[in-house]
Structure formats: C-alpha cells, structure tokens
Amino acid sequence: MARPSSVRTMTSHTLTLLAVLLLTALVGTCTGEAVLEEDDFGRLIINTTDPSQPVLVNGVDVQELQHTVASLVNVARGSSSSIHPCSIGLDTAAFLGHKCETRLVGGDARPWTLAARFSNDGVDTWTWSNYILWSNNELVGTAQGSGDFKGTAWFGQTTDLLFVSDIGEWIAYEDALAQQSLSSLFASVPVPCSSGCPSFAATQQNITSNPDRCDTKVYLNPRDHDPNGQSPTCGFGWSFRYNQACPLDDVGHSGSLGPDSYFATEEQRVLGFLGRDSDATFVELYVR
Ligand SMILES: *[C@@H]1O[C@H](CO)[C@@H](O)[C@H](O)[C@H]1NC(C)=O
Ligand SMILES: *[C@@H]1O[C@H](CO)[C@@H](O)[C@H](O)[C@H]1NC(C)=O
Questions:
Q1: Where do the domains of the chain lie?
Q2: Which atom of ligand 1 lies at the shortest distance from residue 47's CA?
Q3: So which residues are the signal peptide here (predicted)?
Q4: Tell me, what's the pLDDT at 78?
C-alpha cells in the first residue's frame, strides 16, 4: 500500500521541479535582462531588459537617432535622381554604395560621383548594338570593383565631366553640360551624329602624349570621318588617327569607350582618351 503513495510523491516533486526549470528558461528567453558590460573586444555593451525601451546617451535617444538616419537614407535614395550623392556627403554616399572622387580637379571642395565605368573586363556591355544604354534607365554592375558599370548618377543634373583611368591618367571637361543628365544628353543627339554635333573642350588633364591623338576634345556619338566611314561609335568618343588621317579616323576602333558599328555586338578594347593599346584596364566617368 505504501508503494503507490511513494511513487505519487516522487512524481509530484519531479513535476514541480520541471515546472520551475521551465519557468526559469522561459523568463530567461522572453524578457532577457539589462546588461552593462565590456566584451572581449573592449566594446561597451548596453542592453535594456526590453529591447523597445529607449537608451539615452547624454540625453540623446539612440533608437530615435537610428530611425532618423533610416528615414534620411530613404530621402537620399529618393532624391538621388537629381542630386549627385557625393556632393550631399561622403559618408552618406558611401553608405548608399556610391563611389566618390575627392583628389582631382577641386574634388576635395566639390566631390565627384562615379557615373560609369568602361572596362576591358571581357564583358560586352558598351557595344554599338546596345547604343540605347547611353540614354535609357538601365543600370549596370556595381560602383566598387573594376567591371563595367552604369549608376544612378547617370540620371543626375550634371555640369562637369571627369574621365579617370586606373593608371592615373585623367581628363576633365568642366562646365560641359548645363545641369543636364547624361541620359537626356544622349537622347538628344543622333546615333551616329553627322552635323552640328556637340563636342566639349578639355579644361584640365594629366595625359601622356600620343602621336596618333588629333586633339583632346570629347565628341558625342561621332561618325567615322575616314572615306569608308565603317566605324562610327556611340557615346563619348575621342579623335585619333588609325590607318587614315585625322580627325576621328575609325573612331569606334580608335577612340571610343567600346562601341564600334563594324563589330556591333563586341565591346572594343579601346579606352577613350587613352586610345588603343593602353596599359590601363578601365576608364571611369565621374560627374558633378
Ligand atoms: C544585446 O542585444 C543585442 C540585440 O538584441 C544582442 O544581439 C546581443 O547579444 C546582446 N548582448 C548582450 C551582451 O546581452
Ligand atoms: C598623372 O598620370 C600618371 C600616369 O601617367 C600618374 O602616375 C600620376 O599619378 C598622375 N598625376 C596626377 C596628379 O593625377
């Protein structure tokens, strides 16, 4: 008769113990605990018991600050279609994934934003058959790295142009545009352009001399000026001599940023103002 009673008692004790353990575990996971400690990296950790409780540092609510930053980022993302991000702030621009240039042509006072990269990366992006890329809303690649790229700065109001190669040579065209976007600029010029074609004169540069270079202007959608005229380009082009005389001889093949109507679907290994056979891998276009 004693046996069943003893079993009952043990069972009831075990249940009580289990309940207490379970409750402890639940309290531990659901509500957490306030923490003020230094971690292994020497960082000070401040955690409230309830994650929604405010943490104030000298009266500044950290969570509120976080919400403010998040909404500012949204505003910046929304307005990046007209204002170049690097001119708003370098930290914000970097946070949004943009690449800025601050060393060249007064960039420390008026930073440049990367709009595009024309790279000999083996990918046929900037081609004659894809001429629409110069005027459409398509984006390509990422700002960081060394591959072909076309970013949102392509659609921002632009005044100055800066072409920079990865070997340090660069050429700038200040006041080339009157607050116009590159997309609307290229939408307004025929492909190729035959008469009354826009071109801009260089204002500052760091380029090594090239005996085949005719001049340092940049031309828009230039036609091939040699007698056959088989190699016009689209986009920005520079004037070189190739197998005929200056100017703009076989420009798609000698002074383009890739497109050549003679090889319509292939990106040419030409790097704009550097011409052919350069040691450079890419040319980046910065705007402001
Ligand atoms: C503090 O809270 C964060 C966010 O909930 C959490 O990831 C972290 O592990 C907590 N740190 C400590 C020491 O409690
Ligand atoms: C000019 O270009 C050369 C490469 O030809 C480069 O090494 C140098 O750093 C550049 N200088 C400036 C001021 O950009």
A1: 97-287
A2: 1
A3: 1-32
A4: 61
Ligand 1 atom nearest the C-alpha of 32 is 14
pLDDT surpassing 70 at residue 217:
yes
Looking up tokens 């009266």, which residue turns up? 59
Q: Does the pLDDT value for residue 203 go beyond 70? A: yes
Length of the chain: 288
For residues 178 and 160, what is the distance between their CA atoms, to the nearest angstrom? 9
Give the residue-averaged pLDDT of 121-148. 97
Distance CA 85, CA 262 (A): 37
Q: Is 10 helix (H, G, I), strand (E, B) or coil?
A: helix
The sign one gets for the Cα dihedral 248, 254, 256, 259 is positive
Rounded CA gap, 55 and 282, in Å? 48
d(CA 216, CA 243): 19
Distance 165 CA to ligand 2 centre (A): 10
**Chain mean position to CA 97:** 6
Distance 168 CA to ligand 2 centre (A): 4
Residue of 35, 44, 47, 66 best suited for mutating to test ligand 1, as the one with most atoms within 8 Å of CB: 47
Q: Where are the alpha helices (DSSP H) in 114-202?
A: 182-187
